[in-house]
Amino acid sequence: MILIFSGIKDGREIASDLAGSGYETILSTLTEHGVAMVEEMDNLETIYGQMDVEKIEEFIGERNVQAVVDATHPYAEIISNNIEKACSNAGTRLFKYIRPEIPLGEKVNVYEDIESLCVNLKTTEGNILLTTGSRKLEEYTKHLPVERLYVRVLPIRKSMEKVWDLGFKSNQIIAMQGPFSEEFNREIYKQCHIEHMVLKNSGPNGGTRQKIESALESNIETHLLDRPIADGEWFEDKKTLIKNIMDYLEELK
């Protein structure tokens, strides 16, 4: 049995390839929305919900999981740490997949954390578009006036309730499932009179390139929150990862 943690497209593709090759696979996502994005197929089970170290370790034992794959978002530090600790406690092999980064040009401002990013934005004027999701959104509103901010979030209840609770008005909320084309991004910048855009380096499937290129073409200042430094061994190529998982499981037979 293979247990995959992921809420991104890459993780769904990894799960589909393994299940399609005959391996019993469980894909765990944080939200019900993540499960809804998965196509039903043989050998693939989906579950959702938040899991701490104890719950992950317990699940590994109950389902006789032989290999765990951490294919979560590159910025999902808490769940990645929980997965690593649980696998260590359970003595279960962990494979880590990290989306490849998009090369950045000199015109992109890069920051190590949200606070330093906001400190710089405080010295500027104009509307700011946050494309970093609803998680940690309160860290931006703590430093910046909500009136300057526009947010792009998933159209799910949890995200919408959070942005409303933080004081965002309806005309400051773009609730849509990405990624989007450069043309679509440019239209958003134009309609919302955006002068600054904030993003993460989410990789090719995360729409990072389209966000950056459309912003630079529109003369919009681009601010990128850098990825956390990944520890240990990981894979950036899905095919190589899948082959390593299969080889490992064959060795166990």
TrEMBL record:
Single GO biological process annotation from the record? cobalamin biosynthetic process
Gene Ontology MF, one: precorrin-6A reductase activity
Pathway(s) of this molecule: Cofactor biosynthesis; adenosylcobalamin biosynthesis
PROSITE patterns recorded for this chain?
COBK_CBIJ (PS51014)
Q: Which UniProt keywords apply?
A: Cobalamin biosynthesis, Oxidoreductase
Which Pfam family name is an example for this entry? CbiJ
Q: Which InterPro entries match?
A: Precorrin-6x_reduct
- Record-given protein name: Precorrin-6A/cobalt-precorrin-6A reductase
The organism encoding this protein is Dethiosulfatibacter aminovorans DSM 17477
